[in-house]
Amino acid sequence: MQQECLDQAKEIEIGTVVGAECINETEPFIVCAALSSERVWSGEDGPCWMGSISKGMQYVRVRKYRRSVDELMYSSTDCEFHLSSEDVRVANMKHKPVEVRRSSRASVVSNVQTITLDRKILGKLKTKCCNPLDE
């Protein structure tokens, strides 16, 4: 499965919605939008939001989505980080953008993007995040 994850990460382009494993009991997986294609880290070793990053590590720069009003709806956050290619479980999650109705009286413009995920692809992500990498 680890090679499958690395192969999927190579397919990621800017704007792709990615599903990844997150080793956290309350958040076993995350959904995020790619801000870059896959890269190889050449900077100093150090911490990042989901662990650490080290020289030679393959990664994708992403922005995290958070679950919104239901299981399938997710909204973008300000959390940007380096996602290890090894954590990618679904490289191109099927989704639809949610059009947010704007009030003409609203003085603040929101940059939050909201999407609805495909139920089957979300199920696939959940299943892949419950299986150990060495199977």
Describe what this molecule looks like in 3D.
- The protein has one domain.
- 15% of the residues lie in helices and 38% in strands.
- The chain is globular and about 50 Å long.
- The chain starts with a helix and ends in a 5-residue tail after the last helix.
- The relative contact order is 0.25.
Care to count the β-strands? 10
Main β-sheet description: 8 strands, antiparallel
Low-confidence stretches are none
- Distance between the terminal alpha carbons, to the nearest Å? 7 Å
* N to C succession of SSEs: HEEEEEEEEEEH
Proportion of β residues?
35-45%
Short structural summary:
The chain has two helices and ten strands, in the order αββββββββββα.
What's the arrangement of secondary structure elements?
Layout: H1 2-9, E1 17-21, E2 29-34, E3 39-40, E4 46-48, E5 51-53, E6 58-67, E7 73-84, E8 88-90, E9 95-97, E10 114-117, H2 119-130
Keyword list:
mainly beta; 8-stranded antiparallel beta sheet; two-stranded antiparallel ribbon
